[in-house]
Design goal:
The chain is α+β, with helices and mostly antiparallel strands and 157 residues long. It has four helices and four strands; from the N terminus they run H-H-H-E-H-E-E-E. The chain has one domain. The chain has a four-stranded antiparallel sheet. A hairpin with a 5-residue loop joins strand 2 and strand 3. The chain is elongated.
Length: 157
């Protein structure tokens, strides 16, 4: 293992220890927790439901707002709001990755994290329908630790 690869492994281990890794991710293993809250998407078309959810998610993906934390608090707040609104969601995956452009220059430290989730609702025809959502934290920090600072993109389709 070369020096850069070892530094990358150490950085990921340190992130796990201080709360930025998968064990401390407050979203992993979660799903809808707003039992008893009426589903606002019930009876909507898929397009209308996506518009409704994306309008809620827009405020989390404002360009130029950089977050500085190691606990993914803004992402937790986003999913908490879905609960409060009665949106039935389920997390499907959460993973760190290295973007292709960073990989091309030999970077070994993850520079983004992606959460994929599904939103279930009863559509205007009385059938179960799904929206597929993604939340991406794109690193804006230094090369040594790109996710020290990040911005968010969140949407469903």
């Amino acid at each position: 293992m070369d020096g850069k690869a070892m530094a990358s492994e150490l950085l990921l281990a340190a992130r796990d220890l201080v709360g930025g890794g998968p064990e401390a991710d407050p979203i992993v293993g979660r799903r809808f927790a707003g039992e008893g809250v009426p589903d606002p998407l019930s009876g909507m078309t898929k397009r209308a439901a996506a518009r409704y959810v994306n309008k809620m998610l827009d405020k989390y993906g404002k360009a130029g707002i950089f977050r500085h934390d190691t606990s993914w608090r803004p992402v937790k707040i986003l999913f908490d709001e879905l609960d409060r609104e009665g949106i039935r969601w389920e997390l499907k995956s959460a993973k760190y990755d290295i973007s292709p452009s960073a990989r091309d220059v030999g970077q070994k430290v993850p520079d983004n994290k992606t959460w994929r989730f599904e939103v279930s609702f009863i559509n205007d025809r009385g059938r179960i329908n799904k929206l597929y959502g993604v939340v991406i934290a794109s690193g804006a920090g230094p090369v040594e630790d790109p996710l020290d600072s990040y911005d968010l993109i969140a949407y469903v389709s």
